[in-house]
# Entry
Amino acid sequence: MIRFQGVTKTFEDGEDAVTDFSLEITKGQFVVLIGPSGCGKTTTMKMINRLIEPTKGLIEIDGRNHNKIPAVELRRQIGYVIQQVGLFPHMTIAENIALVPRLLGKEGADLGDRVDELLTLVNLDPQMYRERYPNQLSGGQQQRVGVVRALAADPPIILMDEPFSALDPITREQLQEELVRLQSELKKTVVFVTHDMDEALKLADLVVLMKDGRIEQTAPGDDILREPASDFVREFIGSKHLAQADQISLGDITIDKPITIEPYRGLAEALRKMRRHRVDSLLVTDATNTLLGIVTAKDIHANLTEKRRIEEVMSSQVVKVPSDISVPDLLSTMQEEQVGYLPVVDDQNKLQGLVTRASLVDVIAEQWGE
Amino acid sequence: MEFLSFIQTRQAQLALAIWEHIQLSVIALLLAVVVGVIVGILLTRTPQIASTVIGTASVIQTIPSLALLGFMIPLLGIGMVPAIVALFLYSLLPILRNTYTGIQGVDSSLIEAGVGMGMTGSQVLYMVELPLALPVIMAGIRTATVTIIGVATLASLIGAGGLGDLIFGGIAMANNYMIFAGAIPAAILALLSDALLARVESKLTPINTPEQGGGA
# Structure
């Protein structure tokens, strides 16, 4: 759909705004260009509709070199939404929305229907707003109109240049949600510029993180959070997001060296070990660390009068989980089996660790405390 | 009452003077509007020479009106043509300057929106820049109009006719009625045209043209 191939933009002052930028955007993809100010994200976007011409490299739209398409014609096929909204104050809302279709030579009643349809799409009552002037609308309503104005001629590509950053946080969130809904219906190819990571994560299919005119990382938002490609990315994302993404891993909640006992030991010794480590059960393992069973304080008390060994009283029916289990699966096993602890074993049944309710609570508390 | 009978006896002369006055003013004004608006627009495309051109127009404006009319005699002789040229030059500045500043003052984000939506250069001019600069341009035209109607009374001195004939004739003959017969219509003309242009201006300006260009 849109393909950047080694695109470089050098401004008159000799500084590179964008350097050797290559990216492929597929049809219907919602791509967010993000980065600190001056990273070249807006320049990159404006090269798509030739508001800025690349110095070097090639941009293709549907396989056509976009330099070969007359700029005016190209722009009429690409919706454009800007931060300052840019509604024309001397035109009514309807006139503003119908502008690009009119530039394309469309007139008549159809156009009026289209305006109403678009206003309805963003929950603005056409009866009420059609004939109003932009300054009679709130900032959020104005940008809703700004968004549908870009949709009016049904262009396959929409460019959005920080469209919500001038809005208050509540309105911004509303518009982001409306945009998500619109996109799920309309499936446009969207290139969206922002400096707000929350916004990018909420909207993007693909996040392109830029720094000093170059791509630092291109990945779905979740992957960027999980595996930041560099320290810069990590820093840009911020600790807030990293903590969110830093999902609790099995390692975090597992006790590496659970208290174990060998099967040939006596019951009194087991009891002493429990008391010393303040636990109510012991895992039974042999010399090769293979899990044989579990013995609880109750088992021992029931048999304490007789001289018996652990292997005689332990229960070998242990609920255990493999070491590659996911945390959610582990939690649901714990729930279903009504157990307070789960030994983790490898594929040869060798004990790897132990998850207990207490170890879970510790980790969760730690996460919340951050 | 004597004044009214004076007017009655001089009816034909008065009508001619008013007609000449209107002719002088309207022709000079139209020229100034056409040239001033076009040059003003061109200057917004070449801002590097804007200050030079506007500076030159200001210099012309600072020449006393009578002196400017006087300059015309050696250059163009006497009569209507040199008077119209002088009036034109004199009224050029407010129109030129207001056209330039009016268009320069259009919110750049609106121009970017227009260009980004696929307007051609002239569409941006006709659909965005001119409509939004119109109140400022009209204010310049009103200033120019009132100035022209006033200065046109002096055009009589270089033989262009108009209401100045009556005023200066009245002064020479110490005839107050004659002075009034020239001065009062001149004042009424100025007031009427100003009021008329104000109406036009508000008609052309949507009620809701905001001070702010959008945003949050």
Notes: The radius of gyration of chain A is 31 Å. Chain A is about 40% helix and 25% strand.
